[in-house]
Predict the 3D structure of the following.
Amino acid sequence: MVNENLVKDVVKEPYKYGFVTDIETEKISKGLNEDIIRLISTKKEEPEYLLNFRLNAFKKWQQMKEPNWAELGYEEINYQDIIYYSAPKQKEKISSLDEVDPKLLETFDKLGIPLTEQKKLTNVAVDAVFDSVSIATTFREELAEHGVIFCSISEAVKNHSDLIEKYLGSVVPATDNYFAALNSAVFSDGSFVYIPKGVACPMDLSSYFRINSGDSGQFERTLIIAEESSSVSYLEGCTAPMFDTNTLHAAVVELIALDDASIKYSTVQNWYAGNEEGVGGIFNFVTKRGKCLGNRSKISWSQVETGSAITWKYPSCLLLGEESIGEFYSVALTNNLQQADTGTKMIHIGPKTKSTIVSKGISAGHSKNSYRGLVKMGTKAIGAKNYSQCDSMLIGDQASANTFPYITSQQQNSEIEHEASTCRISEDQLFYLQSRGIEFEEAVSMMVSGFCRDVFNQLPMEFAAEADKLLALKLEGSVG
Amino acid sequence: MEIIERIKTNKLFSNPTEIQKLCLKKLQSNPLPNLKSELWRLSNKSKFSNFLDFSLNGNSTNFEFPYQNNSKNIIRLIIGENSPTNINNEDYSINELNNEELIAYIKKNLSSFDQNENWSELLNLCLSFEQNILGLRIQGTKIPPLEILSHASNDYINAKTLILIVEKNCNLDLLQINLGTENSSLSHSTYLCLEENSFVNHGMVAYGEKKSNLLNSLNVIQQQNSEYNLGTLHFKFNYARFEIRIKQSSGNARTNIKGMQITKNDEQIATYTKIEFNGPNGFLDQINKSLADDKSHAIFEGSIIVPKIAQKTDASQLSRNLLLSNHAQIDTKPQLEIIADDVKCKHGATISQLNEEELFYMRSRGLTLAEASKLQLGSFFKEIISFIPVPKGRWDLLNKLLKQD
């Protein structure tokens, strides 16, 4: 018999990224109004079109209502009580990493993201974002040799203004939804990637987001453009210190793939999730969307969501180009009082487009884990195909797992298949493993990892190993 | 929306009954459902307002069953026309509920009604005249098949309500036929209570004519060890909405549902189901099929709710859809909400067209395309139709469907 008492011994393992870096930061006053937006824009020395973009988004945001259809229970967010810009103080311009505050480098070192030359991760270029600004981007010269642009979005605004003007907001319009509008108005930094025609990016690109201040939100924006016949793999990681207040994270990610291009976007999200009573934690309201503009283009999302008090995130694909492909692989794990409402939208517009959705939800403790997804076949999606699979695993009898797949088809010559199942860790399997001398917890961890295998196989190597460990850690002691 | 105007201005009836008063009161403050909510957002707004654009009629014209009664051993009732004489014999008894019992039963249900979720029931009870509410208490075994007909009359909105209490250890075959006529609206609600150890085979066949509308709701409560089989068929309605709500009040019950809707021209037919397990060891096997042709729109939304108390529930739901035209649309949303951990739940959904390989095979054997398609459709329909408790000899539904233009 599975021991029910063990359920009560929920994770005791502390959140190991919960430290605060004591560093002098430059913050602007709390609140949100036109002046604040102008101030952010001035601080970043932005051209006028960007300021207008922000102001326009802000105007629309004021007219919008916070969405509540996901029925996530959280206290109302006071948007005037958030600092919209916070940056570690440093010299005006840094030419090399040596000039970066050592405390910052130390922070990223502690997080396992070495930025200094000697310790750089081999073959992964990193853009490190600390609160509102990007601190450093590694391997830039090597990438430049191939014509790849990888820098913070503020730099891109200065140096590649034409690309920004053309593509920013072209996938997620400023008025797309409440949180995207908020982001468009106040976004502070983020990563920009441009892969020129015919280039396969020589190394994985990665950005690492760190929230340090307790009272500031993080609003970053990522824009990735893959020109014809190019390809790139992009990784994203995030952590935050432990505060007993809730911090808002509202990001926007836009991907654009032209003819024959492919983008793989992987996320391991490990924001602070709040304590066992649900106090504190990050509110993660993210809009991620990719546009397969070109024929035979491909966008693949893979994500491992383990953190955040609340996750509200639907990485989507707009499949416009003929024979374009969208993929979504997700593992969402919730424990204690976490709530996750995540899924994807696959909008088939072009003919012969294909999409695959594999979603694995694991809920433990008193958490709530929902899959919410849309598959839509437009009138011109002749010969389009979709396959979706959503599996949920329940651990303990207090957690809930929900599935809300929305399926719409307007094209008779298309196929949609959807499957969903719910299970729990079976006693027979546990007994078998234990009878072979495998410890209880290890057996559980093996089974969880087996349950997620389909998704882990899609993650880049470094991430897959990390994700496996992360799940084991998060579930430690929570299984009954 | 004549009906809504009349509800708002309190001009619906000169002397409403107690139930009507209660429902009016609930509806007056907020007479329409929230059309943006999940339950209503896909409803075609103009068709929906068209449903309400008739004047109310309490008396119905004479109406015949769609097929001959070739066996004497069938009990047939037409709601609003003939009230049943109470039947009591050795094996079984069928008795009409008296007025107090009816009111008490309805009131009990009313108290838990939500303005939005149960809008169809509220409207129905509000519009149902006393003679159009039929309440029956059924006991015993070896009961002959029971057939109940409801219909709307031309240019009117009619409301009919059926309440059936199936007592302990009872075994019943029930067929309900809801018919629409040209330019009519029918609001129909059924309340079914299956007491312990009872067994009901329930068929619900509904079809209309040109411009007929239907708002059909079915509320079922299943007590322990009861088994409920439901086969449904909806077609030929300008606008139809079928809402099924089944509650296994203390688990340990079995539910099998096989439903189908067929839409053509510019029709819209929607099925909403909500199955709640309020106890352990519940079982559900549900399949819903939709077929959409021309410019029509078929909708299916099914939700399965498994709270913490419902351990060892075994529920599966399948939505299979055929999209036969470039201008038709199908929406389907099978959803699971699960809190109990020791459960087996799964759902699946597919949308496709007729299988080309199979068609090719049949054509290579000398069948014409039309014959081959018909054969395929026949097999698609058959699974559902064979589940409706009316033998082919009595009423050949499959033939009726395939002959439909």
Remarks:
- The first strand of chain A starts at residue 25 and ends at 27.
- Chain A has a mean pLDDT of 82.
- Chain A touches chain B at residues 69, 377, 379, 392, 394-424 (CB under 8 Å).
